[in-house]
Amino acid sequence: MAKSQKKRDIPAGAVAVATNRTARRDYEILDTLECGIVLRGSEVKSLRESKVQLPEAYAIFYRGELWLVGLHISAYSHSAEAFAHDTDRRKKLLAHRDQLERWNSRVDREKLALIPLAIYFKNGRAKVDLALARGRKQHDRRQDIAKRDADREAQRAIAKSRRQR
Questions:
Q1: Number of domains in the chain
Q2: Residue range of the domain that includes 24
Q3: 109: which residues sit within 8 A by CB, 6+ positions away?
Q4: Strand pairing partners for 82?
């Protein structure tokens, strides 16, 4: 996926590696959390080259820890085969214990999903912007599109009336 510098997905001063553009379309974002990632050396180098596929990734709670599943980080081009990493292995996410417990209870209680929005480097460390999200239905997306079109038409009408004065 190409590099994206959208301000809503990454904090100021961070360098974006990948963003999940379909997440905001398919899910209603309720809350976000910045997490660290436990990576191997060749994975970090591949991330710096933006060799990552984020859209199919999701996070799960397993034994009180948060794990990122489905994140594909391609093999680093200059690493030896003996030191290469498994491209689809689970990655452990790092966050404060109280935040994990709060999110775990919300996921269990409200049947929510944990979706990564972006991966970026902040102060030389790889971070994931993780979202607590509720899936959208097809009709919800259609309503959002209709509302956006109506707002756009209203703005055009206002601009046209200002020009005619």
A1: 1
A2: 15-136
A3: none
A4: none
Gap between the Cα atoms of 118 and 86, Å rounded: 21
φ, ψ dihedrals at 123, nearest 5°? 55, 40
Looking at residue 109, which CATH number applies to its domain? Answer: 2.40.280.10
Model confidence pLDDT, tens digit, residues 74-105: 887 766 565 566 667 899 999 999 999 999 99
Q: How far apart are CA 69 and CA 40, in angstroms?
A: 16
Q: Render pLDDT for 107-164 as a digit per residue (tens, 0 to 9).
A: 999 989 999 999 999 988 999 999 999 988 777 778 888 888 999 999 999 998 988 8
Please indicate, yes or no, if residue 108 is contained in any of the structural domains. yes
Contacts of residue 100, defined as CB under 8 A and 6 or more positions apart, other chains included, come to: 61, 64, 65, 66
Report the C-alpha gap between 68 and 89 in whole angstroms.
9
Write the secondary structure of the chain as one string of H (helix), E (strand) and C (coil): CCCCCCCCCCCCCCEEEEECCCHHHHEEEEEEEEEEECCCHHHHHHHHCCCEECCCCEEEEECCEEEEECCEECCCCCCCHHHCCCCCCCEEEECCHHHHHHHHHHHHHHCCEEEEEEEEEECCEEEEEEEEEEECCHHHHHHHHHHHHHHHHHHHHHHHHHHCC
